[in-house]
Amino acid sequence: MNWRKFFDFREINDEPKPFLEHLEDLRRMLIKMIVVLVLMMGGSFVFQEQLIAVIMHPLLSVDPTRSLVNLGVSDPLSIAIELSFYAGLILSFPFLVLFLAEFIVPALTATERRMLYPAAGAALGLFLLGVAFAYWAVLPPTLNYFFNYSKDLHWQPQWSVREYFSFVSQFVISFGLAFELPLAVLLLVKLGILDYRILNRTRAFAVIIIFFFAAVITPTSDIFTLILMGGPMYLLYEGCIWIAWYLDRRERIRYEKERAKRLSLEGE
């Protein structure tokens, strides 16, 4: 197999293509995504013991005995496959972005194509940052809260293996997706669809949308997890307002310099 051809971008052509050719390009992109995802899942499955150790680590600070209960006969295998899928999704994320870019590049303008690679790199960085933030900063106190809350009610905390691994996996993936919010906002700002004035005026609506989105993607329905998810997203939104203001200010300064230069040349 020619791996260089596997990663080649489609030829950029201003002439419209037939609908069936677009479908063929879409089919090729989906096949590439599935192939890479399956390969990364297979590689992750080989290292399932290391993956399980990583997922179990946050539990050590809460319950050193790690008293998880296996309630299903086939749970060990199905959980290993589920973990391999999530790990494969994270590992294949850069390639999935690349293949998506390959499909949409011919439809973009020259300006949008220049923004594509920085945007793809930022998307990967923000996703990994969200996963790391959830794993190291948010997950341990969340587990500790639920563990101690159960003990305060005089119940013996005894979590099932499936519930714990599903919760942790979905928790960190959800944070990774949530951290993509600044990129989406800044791309809209860069394309001229939004500016910092609109972001500032619609802050109240943004809070509602952010916490609604957080409620959708969080693995549990409790208010504690919702706040832990929505709080950082709101702070990221506030950061977007300041970044949008900086981009607008830089653009105005550049425009004023070009205008002054143009007037100077006309005066001569």
Automatic annotation (TrEMBL):
Forms a complex with TatA. It is a multi-pass membrane protein. Part of the twin-arginine translocation (Tat) system that transports large folded proteins containing a characteristic twin-arginine motif in their signal peptide across membranes. GO terms for cellular component: TAT protein transport complex. This is Sec-independent protein translocase protein TatC. Belongs to the TatC family. Pfam families: TatC. The gene is tatC. GO terms for biological process: intracellular protein transmembrane transport; protein transport by the Tat complex. It is found in: Cell membrane; Membrane. PANTHER family: SEC-INDEPENDENT PROTEIN TRANSLOCASE PROTEIN TATC, SEC-INDEPENDENT PROTEIN TRANSLOCASE PROTEIN TATC, CHLOROPLASTIC-RELATED. InterPro entries: TatC. It comes from Terrimicrobium sacchariphilum.
